[in-house]
């Protein structure tokens, strides 16, 4: 059985997500069994649609939360949202991989995605609002713990 | 002997503390031997009283540092301090657990708390200013390392 | 063979770097085999010179990125850059170790530094711009993964 590599992606920052997917893709490329748990702001990476909710507070957070890779900010030098655009431009100039490229590669490598059930509930995000990906599931903290315990490496990002 | 689960909580953010306690409580619920090391801004969670200090710089940082769960900010969308209030309101609406609930559960589950000695010294916080909890101790980095080495999972939050 | 301890330092914050080096030095002091991977903003700690680049975006990020320990900000209470100065002053008053002291100790203890190849390329930093240290090398994500897999403890900071 191949070694397990588990990430918990709490952050919704473009740069931290890049780091997470770079590590995850590298591990998968080395034939490790990789799982990424998306929790709290990290779930924004998995959002593809935005269904308005009856709850005002949910809508406040949801409307402020990024949806998909294009709306994420940088943890530093965000330049009021301009940072990620510049970063993407810089990456393209360098013939590097943007977060979209890294996400696409993660799917090619069949990396397992798990969206944190409690975070979805808290932020009022329906599973139907998440990206379409056959290896995406919704689960709770026990699912993360069971995976982490069996993993050679488990990181919180 | 049950598996060890160790967290180092560096952050003083409400949302990151929620993630830390959710993981810790889940691990304790699964009969793991859980320890949380509170270091740097993370020690604010353990503060219950604020004794003014003779040192100006200490008082500057101490007076700016949150004291207890009610004063923590969010790592994102803090809305100038309003964020955590909204988050608590949203959690309550969802019948979820606020950070206070999570902290209370961590105590019920007898999770071991360790406050970083160097952080307390640096920020001028006396052990007498920390919350009353029989499983709270003050120790240094070696204590963390010894625990982490024996742990199945160790995360920096 | 001694136990391995691996850190990935993604953050370029003064306080997080302090936490990383405190853990790394403690582990090295306990005869562990310690490696720190500096990635993304973390590479700023390794910069000693700044060679202007032909690329405008590179220069934008590079000129905004701190260079060396003296220019790092705090993740909290940065007070517009004043925070780290106050923190250093406070540390000195307390006869504690500043980040410079911690970095010097890490070198004395021959902790292995690895600068992330992709981060250097992305940010347009030449290996020649990094600090002079015989145990500093430039490598990619596989190097981190191989180390992390063999480590007793691996943390993302």
Give an overview of the whole structure:
The structure is a homotrimer of 157-residue chains. By secondary structure, chain A is an alpha/beta fold. Chain A has one domain (4-156): Hypothetical Protein Ychn, Chain: A. Chain A contains six helices and five strands, in the order E-H-E-H-H-H-E-H-E-H-E. The first copy, chain A, has helices at 14-29, 56-64, 82-93, 99-108, 117-123, 141-150; strands at residues 4-9, 33-38, 112-116, 136-139, 153-156. A five-stranded parallel beta sheet of chain A has the order 4-3-2-1-5, sandwiched between helices. In chain A, strand 1, helix 1 (14-29) and strand 2 form a beta-alpha-beta unit. In chain A, helix 1 (14-29) runs parallel beside helix 4. The longest helix of chain A is centred in the N-terminal third of the chain and has 16 residues, at 14-29. In chain A, 51% of the residues are buried. The A-B interface holds A 8, 10-12, 39-41, 55, 57-58, 60-61, 64-65, 118, 121-122, 140-142, 144-145, 148-149, 151, 154-156 and B 3, 5, 15-16, 18-19, 22-23, 26-27, 30, 32, 75-77, 86-87, 89-91, 93-94, 96, 152-153, 155-157.
């Amino acid at each position: 059985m191949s070694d397990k590599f588990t990430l918990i992606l709490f952050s919704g920052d473009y740069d931290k997500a890049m780091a997470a997917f770079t590590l995850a893709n590298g591990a998968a490329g080395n034939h490790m069994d990789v799982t990424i748990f998306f929790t709290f702001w990290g779930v924004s990476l998995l959002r593809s649609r935005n269904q308005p909710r009856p709850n005002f507070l949910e809508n406040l957070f949801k409307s402020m939360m990024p949806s998909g890779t294009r709306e994420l900010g940088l943890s530093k030098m965000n330049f009021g949202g301009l940072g990620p655009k510049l970063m993407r431009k810089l990456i393209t100039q360098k013939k590097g991989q943007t977060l979209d490229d890294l996400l696409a590669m993660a799917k090619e490598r069949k990396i397992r995605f798990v969206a944190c059930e409690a975070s979805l509930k808290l932020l009022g995000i329906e599973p139907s609002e998440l990206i379409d990906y056959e290896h995406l599931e919704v689960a709770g903290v026990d699912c993360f713990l069971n995976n982490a315990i069996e993993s050679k490496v488990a990181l919180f990002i």
